[in-house]
Amino acid sequence: MQPDQTVRAVLEPYAEGVPYEELAGDFLTYRRWTGDDPVLLVAEAAAATTGQRFVNGIRPAVERFRDAFLVPDRVTSFSEIAAIDVEDDDLVAAFGAQRKRRVLCRIARVLADRPAGDDFAALVDWAQTADHYRYDEDPIGTISGIGPSTFQYLRQLAGVATVTPDPTIERLLTAVDDDLEESPIETTTDLQTIASAEWLAFASGFSPLELDRIAWWTATDPSDRDAVLDAVRHA
Q1: Torsion of CA 198, 28, 122, 39, to 10 degrees
Q2: What is the rounded distance in angstroms from the CA atom of residue 147 to the CA atom of residue 195?
Q3: pLDDT at 117 (0 to 100)
Q4: Helices 208-219 and 5-15: angle between axes, nearest 10 degrees
Q5: Distance between CA atoms of residues 156 and 218, nearest Å
Q6: Do the Cβ atoms of 160 and 126 come closer than 8 Å?
Q7: d(Cα 214, Cα 172) in Å, to the nearest integer?
Q8: What is the gyration radius of the CA atoms in the chain, in angstroms?
Q9: Nearest to 162 by CA among 126, 201, 120
């Protein structure tokens, strides 16, 4: 289907100057500091559950976890992470908040039980088949501390071209809605935000992940943006 030119025309000014294809590609091809290491991808999603910023919160936590558990080969798989006591001293030192530690271990437990050839395949298969509209029925979505945002962020990290319902995409959707004479856009709930982004992607010809990245880029101060991109792209 060809894009709706009216919708596309409204969205294009927001996309102007944004390297959205490259930004989306960072996720789709695992061109990020974690590469395609499934343990680090899950650790990043867990570290993000308390809403910390990437440069000063999420990445340092994952680095501490990596240095304490992966570098010395203390854990090499989801099953070994699942066996860690959430009150383990090294895990507490790495992640701090119990919510992040619990989410990490329980996601690992769910994925370790999936019938897949290896941990990466288990993560990707889950991400590609998970239904975000029924996230609360999903074994990962039912974990305490995981809502639609963490659920969707983990799917993005696993290479799925989807959108995370956060304030940046809400802001973009609201702006586009204001510029259109009429639209079905609604951002009252996370699921409505996701549905609205999917409608906008379908109508405009951009992918949901590209819209996600346009929203992040346009809502982020350039200096903060550069710091995040430098941290994300360099190990």
Answers
A1: -120
A2: 16
A3: 85
A4: 40
A5: 19
A6: no
A7: 8
A8: 18
A9: 201
**161: which DSSP letter?**
-
Q: What is the dihedral of CA 106, 110, 116, 117, to 10 degrees?
A: 20
Q: How many helices (H) and strands (E) does the chain have?
A: 13, 0
Identity (one letter) of the amino acid at 10? V
In 3D space, the residue among 74, 57, 142 whose CA is nearest the CA of residue 103 turns out to be 142
Report residue 215 as tokens: 């929203």
Amino acid at residue number 93: A
- Taking residues 131-158, what's their average pLDDT? 97
* Longest CA pairwise span in the chain (Å): 59
For the entire predicted model, the pTM comes to 0.96
Which secondary structure element, helix H or strand E, spans residue 215, and what is its range?
helix 208-219
- ∠23-226-50 over CA atoms, to 5°? 80
Mean pLDDT, the chain, rounded, equals 96
SS (H, E, C) 127-144: HHHCCHHHHHHCCCCCCC
Is 52 in contact with 45 (CB distance < 8 Å)? no
Residue 235 has pLDDT above 70, yes or no: no
> What is the CA 227 to chain-centroid distance, rounded?
18
The answer on pLDDT for 186 being more than 80 is yes
Question: Smallest Cα–Cα separation from 62: which of 84, 34, 20, 27?
Answer: 34
Question: Does an H or E element contain 100, and which?
Answer: helix 98-112
Determine the Cα–Cα distance for residues 157 and 39; give it in Å rounded to an integer: 11
